[in-house]
């Protein structure tokens, strides 16, 4: 069975290794994949975007453990989400929101049976003592329905889907900035204004207007530092800069507004 790990723990401390140790102690044949441990500390939205962007690349039955958990030890619930033929284990803080928004008929279970946890449960390390042992139990055949009761009032982040203006424009926001400084927006091809495909687009972001849409980053004729739009690998419109950071050049960060319009006739 395949188990992935996504955290904001970094790799300088023992935290990730401790989670892996708990899982492998249950069954050393479990395969572990590190999605990322460099999610910015406490940044639930960044973790939610990463899971949304990557989970469909994994086979059915994969178990994803997500631990970006600033509320660890509080009254926030541990949950198991079932969506798209995969399982997601982590805190009820919106971390799985974007996955659940995109997959049909998701289910969420409150992990209320402490018999599946590692004891004693540390109030500061549920990644090791709650989420890792639950993932290990699932990977070795435990029925998800045996771990608690199904709930419908789980925490959701605001959807990343944009809204359309009366003039046909699209308003969205920057949902992620990657390590290259590319600004990923919440705009998909399905959100393009009518006629944009034939006339091109203009993007308003960070007080600038961008009219260049490229097919790939190193497309011919680019000048170093030039800002352009591009359809990224997550299927969303990104704003990039040739061999530079678009986020730095524009002074934008996640949550900042983006507006997309067709080019005037």
Under CATH, the homologous superfamily of the largest domain reads: S-adenosyl-l-methionine hydroxide adenosyltransferase, N-terminal
The topology string of helices and strands comes to EHEHEEEHEHEEEEHEEEEEHE
- Structural class of the secondary structure composition? alpha+beta
Number of helices: 6
Estimate nothing, just give the exact number of structural domains.
2
* Distance, first to last CA: 55 Å
Q: What's the gyration radius in Å?
A: 20 Å
The average pLDDT is 94
Described by the principal axes of the CA atoms, the overall outline is: elongated
Characterize this entry briefly.
With 265 residues, the protein is α+β, with helices and mostly antiparallel strands. The chain is 20% helix and 31% strand.
Description of the molecule:
This protein folds into 2 domains: 2-151, Rossmann fold; 163-262, Beta Barrel (Elongation Factor Tu (Ef-tu), domain 3), CATH 2.40.30. The strands form 2 sheets. Strands 8, 9, 10, 11, 12, 13, 14, 15 and 16 form a 9-stranded mixed β-sheet that branches. With 265 residues, it is α+β, with helices and mostly antiparallel strands. The protein is elongated and about 65 Å long. The chain contains 6 helices and 16 strands.
Layout: helices, strands, pairs:
Blueprint: E1 2-7, H1 15-26, E2 31-36, H2 44-54, E3 63-67, E4 78-83, E5 86-91, H3 97-102, E6 107-111, H4 126-139, E7 148-151, E8 163-164, E9 170-177, E10 183-188, H5 196-199, E11 201-205, E12 208-210, E13 213-214, E14 227-231, E15 236-241, H6 246-250, E16 257-262
Parallel strand pairs: 1-2, 1-3, 3-5, 13-14
Antiparallel strand pairs: 4-5, 4-6, 6-7, 8-9, 9-10, 9-16, 10-15, 11-12, 11-16, 14-15
Helix pairs in contact: 1-4
């Amino acid at each position: 069975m395949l188990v992935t790990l996504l955290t904001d723990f970094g790799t300088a401390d023992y935290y990730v290794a401790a989670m892996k140790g708990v899982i492998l102690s249950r069954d050393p044949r479990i395969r572990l994949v590190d999605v990322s441990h460099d999610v910015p500390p406490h940044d639930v939205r960044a973790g939610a975007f990463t899971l949304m962007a990557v989970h469909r690349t994994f086979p059915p039955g994969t178990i994803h453990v997500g631990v970006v958990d600033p509320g660890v030890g509080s009254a926030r619930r541990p949950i198991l989400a079932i969506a798209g033929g995969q399982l997601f284990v982590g805190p009820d803080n919106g971390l799985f929101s974007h996955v659940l928004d995109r997959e049909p008929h998701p289910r969420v279970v409150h992990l209320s049976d402490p018999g599946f946890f590692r004891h004693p449960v540390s109030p500061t390390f549920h990644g090791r003592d709650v989420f890792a042992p639950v993932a290990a139990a699932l990977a070795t055949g435990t029925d998800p329905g045996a771990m608690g009761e199904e709930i419908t009032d789980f925490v959701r982040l605001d959807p990343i889907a944009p809204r359309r203006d009366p003039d046909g424009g699209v308003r969205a926001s920057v949902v992620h900035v990657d390590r290259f400084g590319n600004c990923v927006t919440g705009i998909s091809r399905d959100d393009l204004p009518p006629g944009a495909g034939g006339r091109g687009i203009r993007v308003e972001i960070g007080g600038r207007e961008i009219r260049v849409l490229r097919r790939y980053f190193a497309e011919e004729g680019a000048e170093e530092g030039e800002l352009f739009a591009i359809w990224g690998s997550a299927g969303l419109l990104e704003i990039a800069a040739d061999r530079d950071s678009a986020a730095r050049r524009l002074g934008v960060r996640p949550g900042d507004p983006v507006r997309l319009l067709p080019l005037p006739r």
